C-alpha cells in the first residue's frame, strides 16, 4: 500500500516534538509495508465513520484507506484528547 500525507497532516506533524514526529513517520512506514493495513488500528464510527485510526503513544493518526487503489491517505494527527473533535 502507498501512504499519502495531506498538507494538513504535514503541518500538524511539524508542530509536534521531533521525537514524536519520528515515531509517527516510522509507524507509517511499517503500515505501508503491510499487506492488510486494517490488521492494525481501529475503524472509527459516528461522524468519523469511513476513517481508520492508528495509535502512536498518546497521539492518533486518522486515515482513509482506499482498497481499490491500494492507497492510505493520512488526514490528520493529534493528541488523543483533541483529535476526534
From TrEMBL:
This is RelE/StbE family addiction module toxin. Belongs to the RelE toxin family. Keywords: Toxin-antitoxin system. It comes from the Bacteria. Gene3D superfamilies: RelE-like. Coiled coil: none annotated. InterPro entries: RelE/ParE_toxin, RelE/ParE_toxin_dom_sf. It comes from Treponema denticola H-22.
Amino acid at each position: 500500500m502507498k501512504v499519502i500525507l495531506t498538507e494538513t497532516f504535514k503541518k500538524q506533524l511539524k508542530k509536534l516534538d521531533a521525537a514524536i514526529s519520528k515515531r509517527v513517520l516510522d509507524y507509517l512506514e511499517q503500515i505501508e509495508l503491510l499487506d492488510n493495513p486494517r490488521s492494525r488500528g481501529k475503524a472509527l464510527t459516528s461522524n468519523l465513520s469511513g476513517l481508520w485510526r492508528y495509535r502512536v503513544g498518546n497521539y492518533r493518526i486518522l486515515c482513509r484507506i482506499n482498497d481499490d487503489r491500494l492507497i492510505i491517505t493520512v488526514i490528520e494527527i493529534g493528541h488523543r484528547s483533541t483529535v476526534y473533535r
